[in-house]
Records
---
Amino acid sequence: MLPFDQSKRNCFQRCICDGDLVIVYERHDNMKAIKVTNGSEFQNRFGVFKHSDWIGKSFGCKVLSNKGGFVYLLAPTPELWTLVLSHRTQILYIADISFVVTYLEIVPGCLVLESGTGSGSLTTSLARAVAPSGHVHTFDFHEQRAALARDDFEKNGMSSLITVSVRDIQGEGFPEEFCGAADSVFLDLPQPWLALPSVARMLKQDGIVCSFSPCIEQVQRSCETLRSNFTDIRTFEILLRTYEIREERLRVDDDSKGSPVGSLPRKRRQSEENYGSTEKPSSIMARPCRETKGHTGYLTFARLECN
């Protein structure tokens, strides 16, 4: 996501320049993607921030407003881009994305085909995984949606690794120019089984396909079609549960009422009484967050059978 240093292909420029895209971090649930433009300003509840003050600073730095408020300027990684992009369709989030990239065995240099570009959340992570010598060809049947995704990839600096095309993969299949050339294929389609015969022609020997479907009936139909040309068929559901970690004071009394972990052992209580300790002990508590994301969809993977 960061601009490549042409003299060192494997290094990234860590200094913010005029025209760069940065993620302005206010808090974990409030971030914005801003293009740095000399002479422009960014305003929020913390005050006014001049873009000219950002130029030359390192990604990850804290910058101050005219009122003394502050924000952090973060590099636009695929993980952060997923949180700030425009939702033109339902998107995949980090839990599903990381699983997809791993199970599709995507490494630098791979050629990946994707159908169902949508908002481009997964596409940016696929592009980073194949960089610097690989490529992602992504297809969407909706022309306006494809154009907006193309603009986003230009904005976040990934356009050299991604080609966006307009095509109905369910009805037409993938272009024949990719026949036997793709290392991996990802499908996010309402009827993925219609595209699977084309996927089998596109994949290299031992290549892998992944299909994302929100309904189990779609998974069942897809698996029936996969059995004719694929093996090692597996379906997963990724459920992410986050925890809040904070320090809490424990109430120590004989009845142990109000204590989240019960009363202290009698031997410890006696020891504290003998030494005259009046300080209340503290403990690090881990509790599930109240808002937990549930079902997003099913991920079905399969490997092309070798002839």
---
Amino acid sequence: MSAPTTESQTTSRPEDNKAVPLRHPGRWIAAAIVLGLLAWFIISAAGNSAYEWSTFGQYLFDTRILAAAGHTILMTILAMALGVILGALIAVMRMSPNPVLQGVSWLFLWVFRGTPVYVQLMFWGLLGSIYQGINAGFVHIDLQQALSNMFLLAVVGLGLNEAAYMAEIVRAGIQAVPEGQSEASKALGMTWSQNMRRTVLPQAMRIIIPPTGNEFISLLKTTSLVVVVPYAAELFGRATDISNSIFKPVPLLLVAATWYLVITSVLMVGQYYLEKYYSRGSSRTVTTRQLAALADAEGALPRNVTVADTAESN
């Protein structure tokens, strides 16, 4: 007696659907409008005599402007270094089990994050009229010379303000590292400093670097407020002094803005490569065969995967 006929157990794979990309005419219309407005602004600005482009070109590479740009960069680097060092210390104090250290760090953050940086810089400029020296009874320290150095006061004012923000950035980066990493380091016999240097900080830097780069760029632009200290040898202050002497504020403002753009562009490129360096390990390269296996298993291509164009996939 013959077995009943059944349908074939093997089925052929259905043909892939031919996906037709959606058309987005609104995007092209919006892009055309934006490009049209940009072209209109450039053409109108080029022909507007109020910008005084000849004066702009005359002072763009003026030695006083170049020196002021150097002072601005130096002030930014020193203030950021002070902010990073002090911010890391405040972050450790904030995470300390000691209630006194926690209270001091919280008070610091409350004061410097709760008041405008413009007000803080004005206070630092008036510090010389408030304190002339420190009298400890057996010794007297004269502060007149230090408090008359406006560059130093500007760096300290910017650095302390930046430290309040860097403390939260560092604390967030450290706390983002799983506690199991530190426990594993302790099990291997590492000390606290070795654990922080070899385990916690390398992983936390991936989170700390992007906002730190943004803070550095923001600090560069905040240096324009130190004229209230008063310190006028930085970029904006020097451009303002020159514009007041020749009664042409618009082209000198354009000169200052151009140099700010140039410096921040260089910093943004450096930030990109620094982030790329510390993001190693967050993405992985696979072959075409591995990519197909991942796509079949997960249903979609993971975002942290790139394909290696090698003969290994054959």
